[in-house]
Amino acid sequence: MKDERIIKELNKTKLVIFNYIFLTTLLFVFTKLLIFDVYNIYNYSIEIFIILMTFLLYIIRVFMFNQGSDERIEENFQLVGNILFTIMFFGSFFIHFFMVAYFQSQNIIIYNITSTLILIGFIILVYQLRKRKIYFHFPFIDKNKKDYLLIILKRISIFSLIFITNLIPYLIFKANILIGLIAILMSLISLSITYLIFSLYEKNHYDEEEMLSHGKVRNLSMNVSLFFSFILLYYVTSSIINYLYQSYLIDLPSNIEGLHNINIMQATFFLFSIDFIILSTIMFFIIRKSINRFLGKGSVYKLLTLYIYSALFIGSIRYLWRLLNPMITQYFVGRNGIEYLYKLSNIIGYIEASFMIYPLIIIILIIYHLFKTGISYISHLIAYAILPPIAILIAILSVTYESHFFLIVSAIINIAAYIALYLFFIKHTQIINKKDPNSDYI
User: Fold this and answer.
1) Angle at 218 between CA 216 and CA 219, to 5 degrees
2) What is the CA radius of gyration of the chain?
3) Mean pLDDT over residues 284-298, rounded?
4) Alpha carbons 85 and 227: distance in angstroms, whole number
5) From CA 136, how far away is CA 143, in angstroms rounded?
6) What is the pLDDT of residue 126?
7) Which residues pair with 432 in a beta bridge?
8) Which one of 51, 233, 234, 398 has the minimum C-beta count within 10 Å?
9) pLDDT tens across 343-367, in order?
């Protein structure tokens, strides 16, 4: 049975999300005004559509609630909000791919970070839901995990069938169907994974709240291993792509075409790295909550806090540098400043190297303090700390001796480090303790 309070709070949450979408859209409009022709309305098609849909929702809300609020009005507004959001969501993507297909037919390449914006939107949604102590999937959140997952997968399947209609613009403009299909599938996979993570996060949170009510609590939330399973998949794939890239470099100049293709793959894959930086940050905040519960705000808690913010800062700087690098290069080359560009690249390289050492020192200090507390499975964490530097040294040998063998060994060791950390999380997820009366989950 639907809870009146839940429906009311969900309506407030959705309104916050619409506000976020509206403000983000305005930011994009102002950014585009600095880049594109003001009078070229096609560059603002998605933004205009989103702003119109948002204004329509605001107007409908004013008319529906002008004489107060009751259960019937809240239910009707929930229905209207769902319909408008669905139209806005699928309509925006259709317009997006319509424009992409058009530009592609004109041999113009455009890039976007839609998946990252949607991920941030989901984070805002989760924050609002936790703040109001409600669940987005409340009608079936209490089902067993298998039935719950089947419902989520059914929703993703229906969503996928609708989303694939974005291929229509490629047929209209006679653009490259294969490239269009790849772009649509990448967006679809990204959106599906984001929704799947969010759905499983909610289910784990609900189940662990139920566990708390029965006097039990896990060492680590299931959401830690959930987030890291996707992060692990990303790092494994990244290691394989990096191996292929280094392998093609060794084989130059006999395989220039292969290097070109893997460069494109690397650049495409890199665009998703910011999503996993955000996921990692959330995951470590959940871990910090567990540490506070069992060890308090001592040395481990403070070091982990330092590690979280350091890793977020370092990851964001590296992402922005690589993202803006083509524009920076073009700027210096256009002003005959190749020498200055070379010096700047070296400085960034040294900074990145020092940034890699800094988090490693923090991890070693965390291991030392955890070891003193007698925490279980510390060897997995030690492996995570020592394996990456070994992988880097072997990678250097592979370049020095142009050895494919060293290259493969380096990739395997690097992947093994992340598997060791995953096993550490899994082991502590399985440990269940008595309830801490002051504990809660994030």
Assistant:
1) 135
2) 25
3) 90
4) 27
5) 14
6) 83
7) 218
8) 233
9) 777 777 676 666 667 778 888 889 9
Per-residue model confidence (pLDDT) at position 441: 46
Q: Is the peptide bond before 253 cis (omega within 30 degrees of 0)?
A: yes
- The pLDDT score that the predictor gives to residue 305 is 92
- The 3-state secondary structure of the chain reads CCCHHHHHHHHHHHHHHHHHHHHHHHHHHHHHHHHCCCCCHHHHHHHHHHHHHHHHHHHHHHHHCCCCCCHHHHHHHHHHHHHHHHHHHHHHHHHHHHHHHHHHHCCCCCCCCHHHHHHHHHHHHHHHHHHHCCCCCCCCCCCCHHHHHHHHHHHHHHHHHHHHHHHHHHHHCCCCHHHHHHHHHHHHHHHHHHHHHHHHHHHHHHHHHHHHHCCEEECCCHHHHHHHHHHHHHHHHHHHHHHHHHHHHHCCCCCHHHHHHHHHHHHHHHCCHHHHHHHHHHHHHHHHHHHHHHHCCCHHHHHHHHHHHHHHHHHHHHHHHHHHHHHHHHHHHHCCCHHHHHHHHHHHHHHHHHHHHHHHHHHHHHHHHHHHHCCCCHHHHHHHHHHHHHHHHHHHHHHHCCCHHHHHHHHHHHHHHHHHHHHHHHHHHCCEEECCCCCCCC
pLDDT at 116: 57
Q: Give the tens place of pLDDT for each residue, 220-240.
A: 999 999 999 999 998 898 888
